[in-house]
Amino acid sequence: MFKAAQELVKSTEASDTIQASEQSHGRTTTRTSAIYPIPAQLLPLWAGAKYIIAVERTGLRWQGKKSRRRLVYFNESHYYLSSKDWSASQFSDAIRGHWLIENRLHWPKDVTLNEDNCIHRDGNAPANWAMVRQFLVSLARMSGTNTIPQALRLMAVPS
């Protein structure tokens, strides 16, 4: 399926395209989203799908530990299937919205609060601790600090 999507994108002209650029957190990213109608011969492989959405992300981002960080160029391609009759702008917003949830919720819980290495595995403990971690993330966001770790340090200091 992945190879077929790559071939389709290489050999077909997009029916709609949008490009957006942003600079944040020391990164520069350009996203190009393009819609490709799925040809009739491929439709049986992907029941219900009408379009392949190709998203290419390029730019510069920081890589490495703080003591040896450097800006590196990146170029990533992602492919999505959809049955929706949307514009490239609508698909781009929906895809970006999905990753916003991942980056604003799951990433802090996994990385900052080490949720993946939680030792609580029995009964209600995993769900309870997940709620506690989510509460901490919410408090951290309301604290007015720039980062979750900064807010956690602020909350840990006795007054």
Characterise this structure:
By secondary structure, the protein is of the alpha+beta class. It contains four helices and four strands. The protein has a four-stranded antiparallel sheet with strand order 1-2-3-4. α3 (125-142) packs across α4 (148-156).
Order of helices and strands: HEEEEHHH
What is the rounded Rg?
A: 20 Å
Side-by-side strand order of the widest sheet = 1-2-3-4
Total strands: the figure is: 4
Largest β sheet strand count, sense and barrel closure: 4 strands, antiparallel
Q: What distance separates the N and C termini?
A: 57 Å
Strand percentage, roughly? 25-35%
Number of helices: 4
Which secondary-structure class do the elements indicate? Answer: alpha+beta
Q: Any idea what the shape is?
A: extended
